[in-house]
Amino acid sequence: xxxVLSQGEIDALLAALxxxxxxxxxxxxxxxxxxxxxxDFKRALRFSxxxxxxxxxxxxxxxxxxxxxxxAQLRTFVQINVVQVEQLPYDEFIRSIPKMTILNIFEAEPxxxxxxxxxxxNVAYAMLDRLLGGTGSAPxxxxxxTEIETTIMERxxxxxxxxxxxxxxxxxxxxxxxxxxxxxxxxxxxxxxxETIALISLSTKxxxxxxxxxxxxxxxxxxxxxxxxxxxxxxxxxxxxxAPEEIDALRLRVTKAELPIIAELGxxxxxxxxxxxxxxGDVISLNKPVKEGLSIRVGEKLKFMGSPGMVRDRVAVQIxxxxxxxxxxxxx
Length: 332
Prior knowledge:
Layout: H1 7-19, H2 24-32, H3 49-74, E1 78-89, H4 90-96, E2 102-109, E3 114-119, H5 121-131, H6 147-158, H7 160-167, E4 175-182, E5 196-206, E6 209-218, H8 219-222, H9 231-235, H10 244-255, E7 261-264, H11 272-276, E8 294-298, E9 301-311, E10 314-322
Antiparallel strand pairs: 1-5, 2-3, 2-4, 3-6, 5-6, 7-8, 8-9, 9-10
Helix pairs in contact: 3-7
């Protein structure tokens, strides 16, 4: 990666060159020499920029779904946004989160392995306070959860995985489910300390309370589907073919669908006084001659032309002409 100098560094470099503290010729010689860059094998870069961009897009949708879900559940102002998507060792993630926090450990079939949704105590306790009838304020002191509080939090956070499932549909149909909830990071060891993880950080605001929600996804979990996280694969919609039994079931349902068929002899317009004065034996003139065919409609669409008749002492209509698709009847 090419280092980019800040404006302050550029100004300092120009000042040193103008004052004679640095020689331009020496800088040129240094550029020609081979440079050695230190590489930390504990921070192995296993996610490309393409993968990071795809994960960002996926979890921006996740943030929008979470905002809608929490707003409905808590009945208050909620705002959640993706702040950063980065890769780092699992051990560094554990050391960066509070000693007392809410850790939702979950799996997402068909992916193999466990992931973590870490919720900052300010956010988690604000949700709990709101659900129990409070204003949604953050606690002054974080204490251990009671059994009732644990049950409430498990219920609300287990439903957040529906939003995660919806956000991942463009890449893979996953079925996330909550396995356990922990409060001490030291008791949670889902991968080895040096394993690279993708950390998705979501800034969360609930009323006046702010905090972070972090989603930790180990590289070993995403490794089988890394190809799907590339940009061209992410935007390609897979064409799903229907199974033969689905086609047969669909055909059967269509054949049983009922449609109204109407044979119109013609139309006529009369005023209200004429309508009220109708009696047995009166004749109403239609807008079509007797010899002209009948308009046969399926639903509201004109589909056939026919002629009236009798079949076994019952009134019937014989189809004489099929009207082409898309042709509408023209009023005269």
